[in-house]
Amino acid sequence: MRNRGAVLVANVITGLALGFTVTNIGFGDYAELNRMFTFQDPRMLFAFAGAVGIIVVLFAVVGVRRTPGRIHGGVVPGGIMFGTGWAISGGCPAIPIIQVASGYLPALVTIAGVMVGMWLCRWANARFFQLDRGSCGL
What we know:
InterPro entries: Sulf_transp_TsuA/YedE. It comes from Saccharopolyspora erythraea (Streptomyces erythraeus). The chain starts with a helix and ends in a 9-residue tail after the last helix. It contains 6 helices and no strands. Helix 5 runs antiparallel to helix 6 (about 105-130). The relative contact order is 0.10. The protein is mostly helical. It has one domain (about 5-130). The chain is about 70% helix and about 0% strand. It is globular.
C-alpha cells in the first residue's frame, strides 16, 4: 500500500530529475524558448513534436481512447492565453520554478503572474462564465 510520504518522495525525486534534465538540455533558458517561439531555432519544437509522437504511439499500444464528446468551452481561449503567457514569460508554469532554482530571479515575476492569472480565472469564471470546472479545478 502506498503512503503519502512515499508518494511525496517519489514526486520530489521525479521533479528534481526533470529539473536537472530540462536545465542541462537548455529548455529552461529564456533565450532558447524565445528562439523557439520566433522560429529561429526549431530544436525545441522538434523535441515537443517528438514527445507528442511518442505519446501517440504509447497510447495506441496501451489502448487509451478519447471519450467522444464536446470540447470544453474554455479550451481554445485557455490555450491561447497559456501560449501567449508562455511566449511572453519564457516558460510554462514549471519552467519558471526551474529558472529560479538556476538563479534566474526574474522568473519570480512569472510565478507571481501565474498565481494572479489563476485567481483572475477563478474570479472571472464565478462572475461571468460559469464554465464546467471539469478536471481543471477552477
